[in-house]
Each structure stands twice: as C-alpha cells, then as structure tokens.
Amino acid sequence: xxxxxxxxxxxxxxxxxxxxxxxxxxxxxxxxxxxxxxxxxxxxxxxxxxxxxxxxxxxxxxxxxxxxxxxxxxxxxxxxxxxxxxxxxxxxxxxxxxxxxxxxxxxxxxxxxxxxxxxxxxxxxxxxxxxxxxxxxxxxxxxxxxxxxxxxxxxxxxxxxxxxxxxxxxxxxxxxxxxxxxxxxxxxxxxxxxxxxxxxxxxxxxxxxxxxxxxxxxxxxxxxxxxxxxxxxxxxxxxxxxxxxxxxxxxxxxxxxxxxxxxxxxxxxxxxxxxxxxxxxxxxxxxxxxxxxxxxxxxxxxxxxxxxxxxxxxxxxxxxxxxxxxxxxxxxxxxxxxxxxxxxxxxxxxxxxxxxxxxxxxxxxxxxxxxxxxxxxxxxxxxxxxxxxxxxxxxxxxxxxxxxxxxxxxxxxxxxxxxxxxxxxxxxxxxxxxxxxxxxxxxxxxxxxxxxxxxxxxxxxxxxxxxxxxxxxxxxxx
Length: 478
Description:
Helices cover about 35% and strands about 15% of the residues. The chain has 17 helices and 15 strands. The chain has helices at about 25-35, 50-60, 60-65, 90-100, 110, 135-150, 175-180, 190-200, 225-255, 290, 315-325, 340-345, 410-425, 435-445, 445-450, 450-460, 465-475; strands at about 1-10, 35-45, 45, 100-105, 125, 155-165, 265-270, 275, 280-285, 295-300, 310-315, 355-360, 365-370, 375-380, 390-395. The longest helix is centred in the middle third of the chain and has 32 residues, at about 225-255.
C-alpha cells in the first residue's frame, strides 16, 4: 500500500474549493477530493502545532501525551512506560512499521519546536533545509520529487509531506497573492467590526500582526480597515494556491510513474487559522472554531467511493486510528482515536456526539463542540481578552459574534458537565499523569509569560508607542 499524507500547516477548510470556497485556491486538491471522501466536521483535539502533531505521533489527546504548549510547563511529552516502545501506547510511525510500511517524513517540524519525539519511528527523516519551518512549497518539492522518482514505485510506504505556505510569514512569489486583487472577498469582518477589534484585542491581531523585523509584501503589518483585511486574505489564499500548485507537481510525478491511481492520499492540517473571529487575525491562538476545524480528505483506491461526504464529528486522532486499520493493523488499546473505516466505505457510521478540545499556548482553554454549540471555558486569558465562559450558536452565529452564555445557563451547565466528565474519564485511566493544562494555568500560557520579550522587541524595532501602549494595557494584568 502506498500512502501519501499531506500535512498542510494552518489550512482552513472553508478556503478550499472542495469545501465550497468561491476562489479557485485548490484545484489539484479538489481533484483528489472528487475521487474520495470529504469530512466536513474534522477537528484537532488540541492546538496549535506541537500538541496537534504530538497527537499525530502518539494517537492520544494532549491530556495523555503531555505536550499542550510550545515551551515551558505543560510542554513535556510523556513517554509511555518510560521508553516509548510500548505496544499499548505505540508511536504511530513505529506501529506502521510493524505492518511492513516504510515510514518517511519531509518536515522540519521537530527542529522548529525542539520536539525530538517527533523523529521517533521514521525509517527516513528529511528536514531538507535549516529554516526550521516556513519552507516554501518549491523547497519542499525539491526534496520530495527526487525521492518519489527513486522510490515512488516501491510497495508499502507511508510518505508524510508537510507544506507550510498558508502559515505566516507568506514568503512565496507575490503574484500568487496578487491574483486575487479585485476579486470579491469574504464579507466578515466588516469595517465596524475591524474598528472594534483594533480597540480591544492583543497581540497578533488588528493593531499589529507580527513583531518581525520584515513583513513580506504579501501581507499587511496590521489590520486598520477592510482594505488591509482583503490584503491579508489575498496573502493567505495566495499561500494556499502556491501550495496547491506544488501538489499538482506531485500528481504529475505520480502520473509519470504510472501509479497516480494506486496511491492513497490523506490531506489534512495541524490546525486552522483565525481570520477576524474573536478579533484575532492570522493566528492560531485559541480553542475556537476557526483554529480547531481542519480539512480531511481521503482518497483510498479500492476503499473510498468518489463523492463520499461524511458529516460526523471526528478528531485528528481518529484519522491516525483509521490509517492504522487501513494497513491491516489493530488500533493500539492505549490510543484515544477510533477508526472510521465504515465511513470511508460509504457505510453507515455514527461519529462522536461532541468533541472536547483544548489550547495552552496563547490562552488556557477547554472547549466543547456539538452540532449547534461551540462552548469555551477560559481558565487563563493569556494574551487575549476572552470571557471566562463563552457560548456560540454556530447555526445562527457562524462568525461567533454573540456570546450567548448568559441567555442559556442550562446549555452552559451541560457543557461544563461534559468537560468535567471527559476530564475525569481521561485522568481516571491507568497510567494517567498530571493534566498539562493545570501546569500551564499555574504559570500562564507561554506567550503570556513572554510578554516582556514582546515589549522589548517592539522597543528594539523602534515601535516605542506600541510598546508603551502594550505595557499600559497589560502590565497590570500580567
């Protein structure tokens, strides 16, 4: 079995043609999707990058694998039974090798986040640059395509390819952003909403998006009005378009090898991206809908039927479990994921009734998502101004503008019960350790703890007014 897993950083499904986006951002991915199954309700259990990919490697929720943030307390990956070689808590990559698959990754993720556990179990690890992330798609393909030309016709491999282009900074050729100039842009957020965001939310938000020394021409430095937002949107869509072009190069390579129709494709993301929701722009900083909702496309010859759509709730850890069953292996008992193989075959399959998710880098939050509601309990606000309890009616308020918590106390009570029940179930399992969320709450999220570093960096860059405003607004809280 030949499996190619496309791991696309920061990709929102609603910016893809196969999910109904008006712009033609993903024609090559859309072609793959048309031949397989699309999942409309796939979510990462934990965000952002480190906890999500720790779940990819371990098959477990962050409350079990321990890496809920990017550095500091709550970042330690728990090695089951001391050495990581447990069959009950098997590393995904090591488990696939039990099935005789050659496991290969083209990703600099482990270097970027000093996440050395990420390198466990692969037959081959290709970091291919020293950038520690944000390689452009052409740099990725420059390493991947020669590998495919040498090894693509071999049997039984799992090839993981990470593309960074939708993740800031947007360093691809500018014409990929410019192609959207003059095209209609999403109506949300409008001018009034942007004005309110500039007054109320920090940090990589409306007032300034990044504190980098150089902002590429493909993106604005801040969101002052709709024109800036449209430029940001064009930049994000340009990154997606540039990535998709290189997916097309992969397809062309497979076609040249005569194996295009024999390869199983899994296309997903580590997390999504906020584009104005909750006043956050171009960042994955919370346990919210735009951050946790991710695409999932699976084309598996002999298994999936063209045009299959699954509307059931699934976690990213369920994807790992499904790949495992697809290769003929048993899902390890210590994993949290559940296989959804029947859904791939177009059979009836009941997904999860609701999902519990969490975030610990910018804020400390646990959330519940069901068909109607997205509920967020904020334990430490970190760098953003979230209410302690937030409830969104996703059917009638898709942009999450109205916190309905006070009007629906019974729903809030039920959601809190779901979080408590889920937490008790997880921590009650044999071998469970400390909930990493508690460690993050104690010190504050890592980005919050680094507030002084943000201020100092602004001062070094000559942004003295922004630095002083930041200190005046947040130092009393900090």
